[in-house]
What does this fold into?
Amino acid sequence: MASANIQTWSSVPEDYFSCSICLDVFTEPVSTPCGHNYCKGCITGYWASRDSSQCPLCKAEFRKTPVLQVNTEFRDMLELFKKTKPAADVKSSPPMVDEVFCDPCHGMKRKALKSCLVCLASYCNGHLRPHRSVQALKWHKLINPVKNLENRMCRKHNKVLEFFCKEDQSCVCVLCFKDHHVMHEAISLDEEFKGRKNKVKNVKREVKQSLSNKHGMIQAIQNSMKQGREELGRTKAETATAFDALVALVMTKKITLIELLEEKQKEAEQRAESLIRQLQLEIVEDNRLSDKLKELSETEDDFRLLQDLPAVPSPSNINYPVTESAQRLLETETVKKAVAKMVKTLDEQMEIITGEVNMVKGQQTKSGFDDELGIIQSQHAVNLALNPDTAHPCLIVSEDRKEVRDGGTKTRVPDNPMRFDSLRYVLGDEGFSSGTFYFEIKLNGQTRWEVGMARESISRKGVDLSLSPENGCWTLGCYWGRYQANTNPPVILSLSNGPEKIGVFVDYEGGLVSFYDVDTRALIYSFSGCAFTESAPFLRNVLSLRLYGGAPSKTKIYPLFRPDAEQGSTSLQIIPV
It folds into this structure.
């Protein structure tokens, strides 16, 4: 009996049990008041994507969205039919982790071709056919297959997220826009996607160029290190040879001088010994004469005294140079003075050589690590000045318009739409809407300051201004010794030493604002992906559910400065690069 029932159910066409929306066997079948059957998820998603509740087949309108209950008997029939349904004959490869699969497929799921933002489901080529042929489904928005389609729906209104609010940086549906974002600037998601993709491309290009530059710099540094090691080896060998030759010469001269002194001393000793022998002979002769004289002095024989009286000896002709020791002392002092003079000369020459080596080392270090900022300074520097017509009444701009300081009290100045009346800022005299440029500011020891870039449309009246990229400001500031990049929220910067000179580099097309410490040649912070250009008004097109198609206009950006407001403080100064 059971076998007969199975054969009976297997002969029923599959279309009899298929939902007209997903074209697959019903899942949790429900019936509308008009009598048509649908999957509960399909009909619920269909009604959520429309402003009214309508039957997709007969177009019957319902004042209120019907409360649908699962048809249990029909569901049991479906279960019996599924048991008789033959296995899918389509062979598929094992699923990949990152692939999106068709939701209506049972058993071995096929790879999805498109995802529907109305049905909140992904479909393969077979299950996608109704969206291309059924008139009621042709208006559904199809996108490339993605996971987590629920994230594309507004959780509050159950509507498709179609717009991007520039002010709140969030995706909104049409009802959200009408209720809470009607005064905000908004664009279509497609336009925002295109803009983000372009930014990603620009950032990727910049990162790729930066990586290439850094790899090239590493290679150059490594080559420089290799050449330095080779040059050091040659210099060490030549220095060792030169000093060995100098030491050998000194040793030779020392040995020659010592031998000469020893030979001279030997000659002097030989001469002295000869004199001693001669004097000893004379002493013997004098002693003999002394004895004879003593004997004659004691004799009583007068005749003998007359006959034997010896002659008086002549004085000795031996003359020993008593100044020779003083001469040797003089020679020793001469040698010492000559050696001291040589040591002094060598020391002076070594000081000169050491100074030249240190100078070359400093130049090599500077040229090796100053490449990036040096290129920016040489290629993108501009001659910048301040615009006094924008300065707050408390700010005092110098006559050459290169310096600004806070005077503490307001002065009488002409009021104009360009002037800041509450916040103590001043703008540069030139705005930029393309290209790249670079300028430098000297801080002169200030502890509270802000510098950077701002859109031309920056609020200048009142205090309604937030220094954040969302409000068209890209600035760096110091507040009582604490440095921060004014993002939202701010980024606190850990700087070992406070900068004295700030370099600001801007790439308009690249959406980049970078701040450098000029003295240490170090990058302090970079704003990337900056939206310098403001989009044209979009409200009218959005309220009529039309996409904005106009090209955005170029927006000028200006350098922005705020000096320290403390009494007696110094000035911010624009200095030549």
